[in-house]
Amino acid sequence: MSSFLIALVLGLVFGFLLNKAGLTSYHKIVNVFRLTDMAVLKFMMSGLVVAMIGLYAMRGLGWITFPAIPATYVVGNLAGGLIFGVGMALSGFCPGTCVAGAGEGKLDYLIPGILGFLTGAAAFGLTYEKVFPQISRLAAYGNVTIGQLWNVNSWLAIAVFSAMSLFLFYLIDRGLIRKDRLSSAK
Amino acid sequence: MIRIRYLFAQELWSPYLAGGLLGVVGLLAVGLSNHLLGASGGFQNLAGIAGQAVAPAAFDNVYFNYVMPAVITWNVVLLVGIFFGGTLGALSARTFRWRTMPDKQWVEAFGPSRVKRWGIAFGGAAILQYAAGIAGGCTSGLAISGGMLLAPAAFLFIAGMFASGILTALIIYRGRF
To answer: Which of A3, A28, A39, A95 is least surrounded, with the fewest CB atoms within 10 Å of its CB?
Structure first.
């Protein structure tokens, strides 16, 4: 029960942050794919850098153990991502940002959006046994991390990812992204 | 204190600040309840609950009984939180408003038809959820939660998502890309 209370509070903060980052707007999501507004990328990569450092530090100190690592099965992870990107660029939301946007009073997120997720979820659950076992066996490495798979120190991977992120932020903020030519863009 | 109140009333925060705080939420989820954040997982449980109420025989399968059981889970509660978190964010900046259409960039790309928007929102959502199922999670459940644990799956997913997202936007916006 207290676990559910934690889920509720973390969800509240999560939805609040999605709103404050502007990710509950159609244009913020689509414009990262048009390379004219990189807020989505900045949000994701900042979150990753902070969480990576925090998690590996807390585990190093013996404060936490990791939950199951999401499984790597190359074809499925990549194919899923490829289909996901199409849905995201069309609709201008993803599951989390749609729910937070629905909470802001966006009825196109609340009604067709949430019904669409439930429909997709039902379709996946009903076809799971025919589709998923095959896909998840292709180029499957199991519940591994980059450190385990390539036998490198995790802190080296974190340092490389953090340095790449900071360099990318620097390039973006130096104005090395395209100017928006839409008339609705100010 | 006044500065904090001022910050909360802002409509938009720096994505670095909001993203960094999201990272804290992600690690608190692991530290406090050994769970990963993830929005699409909760929809699988909810679809199972709805499906077993409407068509019990069809939804009485391995998936909805064992893989993603048709019950209220941690991820379903998280979804409820995300929803009201969006409400709190909008109320704090006084942007809460019932509306049926997205911002004007949508109208510029697709026209003012509400049927078209709602149709694409429905179809897009269904595609997103099925794709998240195949990939093993969505933007929060795989890209962020997997990425913070350094799972290769997360980076494969992110690469795929940006490749096809950029291509799709290129097609939708053609000359105005």
So the answer is: A3
